[in-house]
């Protein structure tokens, strides 16, 4: 194996698909004041809050690098839905459902704000996102995850009915070294100096 150059990271991206709606019954809603509300449309600043807060531990950086105009063209598109999980009135995570490609619906982003990880909210949020994704006559639901993401992400997607169809190994610039994320982000992924 070739050594990873300084300032870069090695990552494996797994692409998954689902070609039929889930056969299992919907998961029960978690106890307490738990709501899923569509931001219709979200403001770019609120979307950045969600993306940055959910994604920082997992090195999400692509959308941090976009201008407000570039990001707005995506998240303000009526075919892109941003569903925000609220727990006791506080944003706790989100699911982004992208219907811009005919016949395919992509779960573009999905995750919890760190304070809410470990409270069994993720499986319910994913189950709701999958069921919403199937609405509207799509033929295929897709998602991808990578080795920077939460270690339970891939098994959770598979337990909900997604099947991997492609794995891609990449070497990418470390967004912490580039200044797109704080150096303290994703301590589980060592910085290669």
What is the fold's blueprint, element by element?
Layout (H helix, E strand, L loop, with lengths): L7 E11 L15 E6 L4 H12 L12 H8 L4 E8 L2 E9 L5 E9 L9 H13 L5 E7 L6 H7 L3 E11 L1 H4 L15
Parallel strand pairs: 5-6
Antiparallel strand pairs: 1-6, 1-7, 2-3, 3-4, 4-5
Please, could you describe this protein's structure?
This protein has 193 residues and is α+β, with helices and mostly antiparallel strands. 23% of the residues lie in helices and 32% in strands. The protein has helices at 44-55, 68-75, 122-134, 153-159, 175-178; strands spanning 8-18, 34-39, 80-87, 90-98, 104-112, 140-146, 163-173. Strands 2-3-4-5-6-1-7 form a seven-stranded mixed sheet, sandwiched between helices. It is globular, with a radius of gyration of 17 Å. The mean pLDDT is 95.
Question: How would you concisely characterize the structure shown here?
Answer:
The chain is an alpha+beta fold.
Q: Could you give a short account of the major beta sheet?
A: 7 strands, mixed
Helix content: 10-25%
Which sequence of strands runs across the widest sheet?
2-3-4-5-6-1-7
**Unreliable segments (pLDDT under 50, ≥5 consecutive)?**
none
Question: Structural class, judged by helices and strands?
Answer: alpha+beta
Number of helices: 5
Please report the distance between the alpha carbons of the first and last residues.
18 Å
Anisotropy-based shape = globular
Please count the beta strands (DSSP E, at least 2 residues each): 7
Order of helices and strands: EEHHEEEHEHEH
Instruction: From the alpha carbons, calculate the radius of gyration and give it in angstroms.
Output: 17 Å
Mean pLDDT: 95
Sheet-strand content, in percent, reads 25-35%
